[in-house]
Amino acid sequence: MSFKKIIGKVHLWLGMVSGILVFIIAITGCLYAFQEEITDMMEPFRYVKAQDQPYLPPSQLKGIAEKQLPGKHIHSVGYGRKTDAARVSFYAYEPEEYYYMVYINPYTGEVLKTKDMEAGFFHWVLDGHFYLWLPPTIGQPVVATATLVFVVMMISGLILWWPKNKAARKQRFSVKWNARWRRVNYDLHNVFGFYMTWVVIFIALTGLVWGFQWFSKAAYWALGGEKTTIYQEPLSAKTDAKALYAQPVDVLWQQLAKEAATAEVMDVHFPASDTGAIEIALNAERSTYWKTDYRFYDQYTLKEIPVKHIWGRIDQATVSDKIYRANYDIHTGAIWGLPGKFLAFFASLIAASLPVTGVMIWWGRKKKKASPPVKNVVPLKQVPA
């Protein structure tokens, strides 16, 4: 058996095993591509009328939001542009799992909406994309394994696509639309699959960064990274001394609002405990995440606390850190703006079609083999009377 025939068998059986999973992962990724843009259009409570007055401080917004969700654990207060509503998030995993967002007018304190972030269409889509609607401990490794198999299939598909000679090469770059449906289907699988691979390979590899810890560490190491990629919250030095500030979060918020006046997003994270740190994340642009400047402060002294992981100051991030931090933006195509999202959308759509066209090719060949050959058929006009 030749090398290409072996690759063909591998490609076929891997496709049979993972086809339905690849279809679900790809089609849900396709549906989620423009989630932010669609949500912004469909949810007017995310916006307010810009006013010529200062925002309410985080502690005040925190108090307003806690009245909407008494007993829930507050995570952060988020500020955006002058026309954006403030976002107060609440979430926890143990002992009760929940995720809520309270939208508030940052100028007046008016509550605009309390939203359950674990409900709605896009959360359902994301749950399918990450976990196949299974419990995370089961669905996540299944999705990661299917993604790894798909990477192998893309590589094997390129090997099978590679033409033997120059004459065959011309037929591998375009679909012969006027041919019979089997030939068109074959071209859709091969030609579209070839073009799709150069985009989806990055989507799949960035997905594997979340899927497997070993792959995440290996990818960062291959980029030349030297820090840890695991987020660890630094600790405040708790003492018996009286705290220097009554509202330390507000003090830091005012300080950094002046220092980073051009930031489009500021998320202020309250300490989770009396030893936790205050985290403030400053994002230079709303459409991506990799440029976010993460800073941590002692909640008693307000001194900045350095961190050893990659989720620290952007001006202290190496090239390796920045590439790794851009993983989500590369995965969604957002790093290239709206054109990148369209590219990711169509690439995911084609990826979802490959299991379908692949099964149709296999079924067509199976039927052809099953049909008995017609031999020694005498034309009707030659049959003696």
Structure report:
By secondary structure, the protein is of the alpha+beta class. Among the domains are: 3-36 and 135-211 and 347-370; 43-123, Nuclear Transport Factor 2, Chain: A. Helix content is 49%, strand content 11%. It is built from twelve helices and seven strands. The chain has helices at 3-32, 35-42, 58-68, 121-131, 136-161, 166-169, 181-211, 213-222, 248-259, 319-325, 327-332, 337-370, and strands at 74-79, 86-92, 98-104, 111-116, 265-269, 277-283, 293-298. Strands 4-3-2-1-5-6-7 form a seven-stranded antiparallel β-sheet, with helices on one face. β5 (265-269) and β6 form a beta hairpin. α1 (3-32) packs across α5 and α1 packs across α12. The longest helix has 34 residues, at 337-370. It is elongated and about 90 Å long. It starts with a helix and ends in a 15-residue tail after the last helix. Residues 377-385 have low confidence and may be disordered.
Number of discrete helical segments: 12
Strand order of the largest sheet: 4-3-2-1-5-6-7
Helical percent range?
A: 40-55%
* Secondary structure tally: strands: 7
Largest sheet: 7 strands, antiparallel
Distance N to C terminus: 51 Å
Q: Which outline best applies?
A: elongated
Instruction: Kindly provide the radius of gyration, computed on alpha-carbon positions and rounded to a whole number of angstroms.
Output: 27 Å
Q: Structural class given helices, strands, pairing? A: alpha+beta
Topology as a string of helices (H) and strands (E): HHHEEEEHHHHHHEEEHHH
Oligomer: single chain
Low-confidence stretches: 377-385
Write down the overall mean pLDDT. 91
Strand content bin:
5-15%
